[in-house]
């Protein structure tokens, strides 16, 4: 094994540019003769556009052009699309309203796009945007709560009652039967709070049309540039696919929010041809709050049926999911197939039935955010399991253990087929690392200091790698979800890997090179990982759903297989040996049982000279590509244990211990994987304690529209985390990987809330459990006791 | 328009600016030093931190004119003569960065923190990072990196 191979905590190669300030993010790029764009956004949650007066704006200093929805329509551009179609219980297709690039007749959320102002400088564009006079006729706002009430305003005519779909999954009759036989039942109402992704780099785009070649280049903050190209060409009609190059350079975090194709980059690409100059747009943070797709925002009721001993018999869930004002790129999939399919958790539950009403509201579109559906499912399962333990006097660890799936493969009642796992192993290790046995003493000691101490569990499972193309296609995906890679070996033996995965913090330039090093024996410096450019990478589906390892690297693995097979053939002829006798080890081809050997560069050079082997039989050159379609979802799982202390005087919750023991299958770089867990945990704990995207019920205004109002997790909110791994090797891909990017955000919220409710002796507290809410809960629960 | 003159990363620079031009825009747009980032519009995130006369300052909340005559160091100027600063080295060694966007501000903040507080402990580091947001790392390894660099620089 090379010193850079699989399993080694290799320090990241991409760091060298980032720590010196040499990264190149979209806003760092400037094109000759570039103009600057600012979007005029709706100040209303819901309004008809009576008229737009552009006269003053057009006359303002430095203004190059101002475009509205009318111009977009005149050029024949279609709206944005949702790439996943779900069907309602009655078999009807979801009722998708149009998603315009620039709203022409009606605005549907605060921040909706009304006009594009292009000027010589950003300051001039900002000033001119203020001069665009839009005459609005305000309509009532539509919230998650009131969306389906009779008499609520209609967000889209196509969706009566604001219902986009009424989806179901599972066997209703079997589930009802399970409940009729149950010795015990528990129920709980839960809200999954709305979150704003807030990648630190705001979204940005540069559209640049080359009239000489009739080609567009779009630099954009994307997690999946090829998907952006496909949508902008095939569906929106900005340009034919082969005339549009999309480049996602260094991207400063995504967490899902940069998967989607938004109006801004679409408009910049389109308008660059209209004005014949490059157009740059960079969101400020306030725009990011308003117009990035948000995450979560569910209201749910769940019921669990158990037998006398605590064995689970059935689970029923009814959820109302906020889709926002428009269906974003993957939004229909998130509260359905990425949610309902995970409701079995780590448990053997014979019958499950889930109904999800997807509703339109006058809020920013809601789509995938780190975890996407699985945090919402895990929150339901782990909160109701905890409730079942408490209400029926079971130990929270033991009720879980009793109900764990213990044999694999395991078919759940909600589509998923768990291929492998060892849930007891992660639970046992977590109990040990968290010193569960010592908790009563710590609680007693904390009480002496006047603190309320609580402990909370979460044993989660999630589905990553999405997924076999045929499977997701049958569930409504409009695309295949394979990944592609090309491995190009230069005559000198240096390797360029072109991957369809995109790195925006995940460290692919290091981990992917580790795989190549492991396979070829070459040092990392001889290997380059190229991503994020449709002009260089043949194709790709991009990075989301923790899929870059299990799917993206598997494509590289397959391409290396082909390269190695061809190189061995060439080496065999060069050394006049049988192909089967030639092995690639430590960067050299050796004939087994002899001292005959050729170095990697000797063989790769020969591949290009065409000397010494039969080019009629073996083509010269050494470059291979692969498209890898996964065999199954992968199923990362684990156990999180959170220990908190509450100051009853202030309601402040302090995380005092957090243990996360995860099963991610094979780990390429443990240092990077731990970093992914740390980041996920802070986003999950952020959801539980701090973050909340709040729209005013009446006005539909975003009340938490800046870092002054939306509480981002900060360094002093956390202790250090205790991590550990109990891997089982995934049988569905060549390296046995499962995925680690989202697990922290999936497992942690219920662990935190279970700990708080444990400390307070209450059934539920809504997320985020802010000091005000915790304090109020203490007052409310204290009153009856005192009386 | 007024002309502003300052020393940036050891080089004397000057340029015409509007009265309202922020230091971060002067650095990014006029000097083309794009390592200093803008992550918010309320001076909360700290991606724009630079040093003015050796002190960490948010360049998004400073007018370019306020830095007239000052000695400014940006992330690009931290590696003197090409050798990485111990804080830069520690961020790489301890995986204190992922997407890299907050990193320049984090590093500039950390250098100033270590200068001001030679005896750093974990609690202090976490409190001192109040003005710097990171969405990727969960701060865990940033804290580790700063503590390690602090120890190395003390030795």
TrEMBL record, chain A:
Pfam families: Ald_Xan_dh_C, MoCoBD_1, MoCoBD_2
Domain of life: Bacteria
Location of the Aldehyde oxidase/xanthine dehydrogenase a/b hammerhead domain: 20-140
InterPro entries cross-referenced by the UniProt entry: Ald_Oxase/Xan_DH_a/b, Ald_Oxase/Xan_DH_a/b_sf, Ald_Oxase/xanthine_DH-like, AldOxase/xan_DH_MoCoBD1, AldOxase/xan_DH_MoCoBD2, AldOxase/xan_DH_Mopterin-bd_sf
Annotated Gene3D superfamilies: Aldehyde oxidase/xanthine dehydrogenase, a/b hammerhead, Aldehyde oxidase/xanthine dehydrogenase, molybdopterin binding domain
Record key words, sorted: Molybdenum, Oxidoreductase
A GO term, aspect molecular function: oxidoreductase activity
Matching PANTHER family: ALDEHYDE OXIDASE 1-RELATED (PTHR11908:SF132), XANTHINE DEHYDROGENASE (PTHR11908)
UniProt-recorded name of the protein: Molybdopterin-binding aldehyde oxidase and xanthine dehydrogenase
Organism in which the protein naturally occurs: Tepidicaulis marinus
UniProtKB/TrEMBL annotation, chain B:
InterPro entries: 2Fe-2S-bd, 2Fe-2S-bd_dom_sf, 2Fe-2S_ferredoxin-like_sf, 2Fe-2S_ferredoxin-type, Beta-grasp_dom_sf, Diverse_Oxidoreductases
Alphabetic keyword roster: 2Fe-2S, Iron, Iron-sulfur, Metal-binding, Oxidoreductase
Record bears the keyword Iron-sulfur: yes
Domain of life: Bacteria
GO molecular function (one): oxidoreductase activity
SUPFAM superfamilies, per the entry: 2Fe-2S ferredoxin-like, CO dehydrogenase ISP C-domain like
Name this protein carries in UniProt: 2Fe-2S iron-sulfur cluster-binding domain-containing protein
Stretches assigned to the 2Fe-2S ferredoxin-type domain: 2-78
Pfam families: Fer2, Fer2_2
UniProt key word Nucleotide-binding: no
